[in-house]
Amino acid sequence: MRTTTLRVIAVTSALAIAAATPVASLAQSMDELAAAAEAEGTLSTIALPHSWCGYGDVIAGFKAKYPNITVNELNPDAGSADELEAVRANKDNTGPQAPDVLDVGFAFGPQAKEEGLTQPHKVATWDTIPDDAKDADGHWYGDYYGVLSFVVNTDLVENVPQDWEDLLKPEYANSVALAGDPRASNQAILAVMAAGLARGGEAGQGSGEAGLEFFKELNEAGNFVPVIGKAGTIAQGATPIVIAWDYNGLAWRDTLAGNPPLEVVVPASGVVAGVYVQAISAYAPQPNAAKLWMEYLYSDEGQLGWLKGYCHPIRFNDLAQSGKIPQELLDALPPAEAYEAAVFPTLDQQGGNKDAVTGGWDSVVGANVQ
């Protein structure tokens, strides 16, 4: 049986937690913030599929706690780049198409801040968020992480691949897909990085270039399917193998309930962990509802909601050390050993990789993923 201690050690070493910085006091008390948010009456989210990280239950929990706030869910299948574009496109729009909050890949947080697309807010639990997973000014902060894995329909795939090079085998013809467009989706961009690292590429531009060569070979071999993979495409047989975050694969497995059976495999090499971050739009039509949403997400209740969705919440260590994580939630995750070799790319490494992948996918791989 896995223990809390094992996972605390794994996460601590991976994130290299530094001493916490003093938390900025909330400008409003929670009661005042809740009243102001309820007066606004709406929260507009974007890119939050209900199967992603347990968001369906997390949103339901927020609604139950604040029944006077309607949650307007925009474009659940959007990628991180799409989220930033939604803020840009709606900065002069206070209507329902303007998102209040963002959940984007790590590299997209600083980009959004630099463009002036975010506003600062430090949640009450600010001190328990690792320093290297948050902006010092409160413009963005890590929320959860997972590792990239192979999600396999075992009704269609007899020999389940265990590492990246396996995917090039002829038996996987017309079988392998990404869970997003690598020109816009953080999940897909980091999948290319993982393949590149497995090939010996150095994290950053090198991993991006090596990963592009891998996917070029995969495409030329006839194994790559240019379809965005998800539970439905796996079940239909259109994408028998999907490269996706472990938490997405585990959620899809639960959703499909054995029809078909899925196996989620953390590859033997090129294990990349991806931290996602939260932010509030600088142009949020409902800024108080946005702040209240953040307070909920970073409360114990919100963090455990993500863990129920198979994501490691950013406050995992704090919750574990205070004995707040039920053992059954730990037991539902892959073994702690699967995460021991995980690489947590720095912002600079992610930025170099992202530039290589988004700039070179069309010319090197030439597959229009949609």
Automatic annotation (TrEMBL):
Any GO MF annotation of the entry: thiamine pyrophosphate binding
Origin: domain of life: Bacteria
Pfam families membership: SBP_bac_6
Name this protein carries in UniProt: Putative spermidine/putrescine transport system substrate-binding protein
Keywords for the protein's UniProt record, in alphabetical order: Signal
Ion transport recorded as keyword: no
Coiled-coil region list: none
SUPFAM superfamilies for the chain: Periplasmic binding protein-like II
Signal peptide segment: 1-27
GO biological process: thiamine transport
Example of a GO cellular component annotation carried by this entry: outer membrane-bounded periplasmic space
